[in-house]
Amino acid sequence: MILAFDIGTSVLKGGIFDTSGVLHSRAEVPVHLSDRDDPLMHEADANNWISALSLVAAQLELPRASRLGRRIEAVVVSGNGPTLVPVGAGGEPLDFAMTWMDRRGVEEARMIAEVTGRYVDPTFYLPKALWIYRHKPEVYRRTSHFCTCPEFVDLFLTGKACTVLPSQQFTPYIWTSETIEKLGMDPDKFPPFLRPGEPVGEVHQEAEELLGIPAGTPVFAGGPDFVMTLLGTATVRPGRACDRAGTSEGINLCAERAVEDKRLLCLPHIIEGYTNISGIISTSGKALSWFKSISGRGELDYESLFEDICQVPPGSRSLLFLPYLAGERAPLWDPYARGTFIGLTANHGRKEMTRAVVEAVGFAIRDVIEVMEENGLEIGELRVTGGQAKSPLWNQIKADITQRKILVPDVQDSELLGDACIGLFALGNYDSLAAASDSLVRIGRSYTPALELRELYDRLFELYRASYRGLKEVFSSLAAIPLEEEG
């Protein structure tokens, strides 16, 4: 059996898989971002991940699984990224984790770009480390290791620090010793690289006592959640694309070639020889949970929420929403972009606004897809995974807006299934990660776009794009107004 953990932005999940990829048990508990007034600042308490891990392990009843003959042969951990934690000599977090949404390192990203000669986004790992170095020198001085999110948990499980490198070509996107030294930082604070499937270490006694995982169980390197999603949706062949739908949204296309377009991330693929063309949307599911909360429906489950809006016609009665609640990454790369309702009238209410937020995610996905197509890439069916994949209405809305067939795998926790692929490959059950992925991923449901809605959504999509262009300078000017200090 493979024990998989995935640390999301809002949920920490765990699952136990058998060698055929069947998910025997699953558990999740919420995790939280820390409240901050600065719109560029998005932090999390890494200690909360360990507490949540113990709750998930308790729900999975790991000792009972062992008694039933379900011996845990391997542990694999994935997690959100780029998220960075400064860790002390005892493995304790010295400060809040700077999450993948955190964009404070704008100046630091510029400095690194000057050193490396390549584009660096403020959300990447190294700008976060440099920001700590420049703005929190005492935290930097005490830091023994800068750990990414899943590797912080690996450190807790094994006592060994590492950084997962999905492929050799990923090195410039994470860090290099040469760049670190040019920036004046200490390379020893940045743990050595491991490839997915390589052994991190073994579960030690303290972790067994908290989690119930037998001491000595091997822990294998997993990696960033978006990389595990490629495996967990079988986006491992050219032309296959997946929509990693959760708090944020990641559109990933497996391609045979790279492209030169600053609006997209052109990353190495975990499968050697291929490229992962990626567009990350900063707040998708987060936008809906935000609106649910501020509209007084924070406790409403999502199934009831979608029943509430199913009577609202496509197009939300000519209401648009820009989902830029934490700036936007692809394809805008604008840290100052803001969320906005466009076209509100007295005839609009909560239901129309809710549907507009849901449709905005479809428009944001289409925005990324069209940029990919401008570069001559072909995107056919879209494999959707994550929490949003559980909603038939949301899947249909995405199909209608993007005019793409939506495929939903049987196991919608693609990060966990990707972890299982890693574990079974590491144990020698498969000759390659691609073979493990192709074998374990099975498609459950599909959604075909409604052709009669194409004209409507084409018009609304052009207005969606035009709305941002018209408001870009307004957003920038708003960001220049200093926040009032609470007295």
List the helices and strands and how they pair.
Blueprint: E1 2-7, E2 11-17, E3 23-30, E4 33-34, E5 43-44, H1 46-60, H2 62-67, E6 74-79, E7 84-87, E8 97-98, H3 106-116, H4 125-135, H5 137-142, E9 145-148, H6 149-158, E10 163-164, H7 171-174, H8 177-182, E11 193-194, E12 199-202, H9 205-211, E13 218-224, H10 225-232, E14 241-245, E15 249-255, E16 265-268, E17 275-281, H11 285-294, H12 302-309, E18 320-322, E19 340-342, H13 350-374, E20 382-385, H14 392-402, E21 406-409, H15 414-426, H16 433-440, E22 443-447, H17 454-479
Parallel strand pairs: 1-6, 6-13, 10-11, 14-20, 20-21
Antiparallel strand pairs: 1-2, 2-3, 4-5, 5-8, 7-9, 12-13, 14-15, 15-17, 16-17, 18-19, 21-22
Q: Can you put this structure into words, describing what you see?
A:
By secondary structure, the protein is α+β, with helices and mostly antiparallel strands. It has 2 domains: 2-227, ATPase, nucleotide binding domain (Nucleotidyltransferase, domain 5); 234-487, 2-Layer Sandwich (Nucleotidyltransferase, domain 5), CATH 3.30.420. It contains 17 helices and 22 strands. Strands 16-17-15-14-20-21-22 form a 7-stranded mixed beta sheet, sandwiched between helices. It has a 6-stranded mixed beta sheet with strand order 3-2-1-6-13-12, sandwiched between helices. Strands 4-5-8 form a 3-stranded antiparallel beta sheet, with no helix packed on it. α14 links the parallel β20 and β21. α13 crosses α14 and α15 packs across α16 (433-440). The relative contact order is 0.12. The model has no long low-confidence stretch (mean pLDDT 94).
